[in-house]
């Protein structure tokens, strides 16, 4: 129940198309779900987060949805651009430490 | 400084030697994490400190790895008798007093064991 499963591990999309990354978990205590972006050679940085009292949050081209009943949450990137190429990590936390997914390597194709 | 600071940025050591990696978290942050990231891989959890609670050491890969956090601030990750498979980037992150807040990462220490 501690882990968070992230899919896919690799994703290639044409520039301008949308990208979706999904994560699932199994515990009931998790109520905070952040997403981190790690560009090549750099540190992971928070790009968006969502708490369990909302179902969706948007920030420009990025949105996150949460289905707490089904215990899954997703990152949506619209109108993808070359600078979106990176590794994306979902994460969860509740009454204990943050748990990260294994990451999704997103490639934006020209 | 305003962010999480790690030192050294790069460390090359000979197999069998001990190394110490340092993390200065953001002032006032009670949560501190250590992760290991091998090339092209994900974030491997090592250890978690939260305030004055006993650390969660469940991710340490062997008894050669240990970590301390003095005075609730600076943390040191020690690797004894280093092996080539210890080569990786070691990332530190800190977070606020509330459990459900953003974790801020340091720039990492790239460790190379030759």
Radius of gyration computed on alpha carbons of chain A: 13 Å
How many strands, what sense, and barrel or not for the largest sheet of chain B? 6 strands, mixed
Global structural class of chain A: mainly beta
Radius of gyration computed on alpha carbons of chain B: 13 Å
Determine the number of helices of chain A (DSSP H or I, runs of at least 4 residues).
0
How much helical structure, as a percent, in the residues of chain B? under 10%
Low-confidence stretches of chain B: none
- From the spread of the alpha carbons, the general shape of chain A counts as globular
Mean pLDDT of chain B: 94
Separation of the first and last Cα atoms of chain B: 33 Å
Order of helices and strands of chain B: EEEEEEEEEE
- Please state roughly what percent of the residues of chain A sit in beta strands, choosing from under 5%, 5-15%, 15-25%, 25-35%, 35-45% or over 45%: over 45%
Number of helices of chain B: 0
Work out the oligomeric state of the chains in this entry.
heterodimer
Main sheet overview of chain A: 6 strands, mixed
Helix content of chain A: under 10%
Order of helices and strands of chain A: EEEEEEEEEEE
How would you characterize the overall build of this protein?
The complex is a heterodimer of chains A (110) and B (114). Chain A is mostly beta strands and 110 residues long. Chain A is 0% helix and 55% strand. Chain A has strands spanning 4-7, 10-14, 19-25, 32-38, 45-51, 56-59, 62-67, 72-77, 86-92, 99-100, 104-109. The mean pLDDT of chain A is 95. Chain B is built from no helices and 10 strands. Chain B has strands at residues 5-7, 10-13, 19-24, 31-37, 44-50, 65-69, 75-79, 88-95, 103-105, 109-113. In chain B, strands 2, 4, 5, 8, 9 and 10 form a 6-stranded mixed sheet that branches. The radius of gyration of chain B is 13 Å and the shape is globular. The interface between A and B is medium-sized, with 22 and 19 residues.
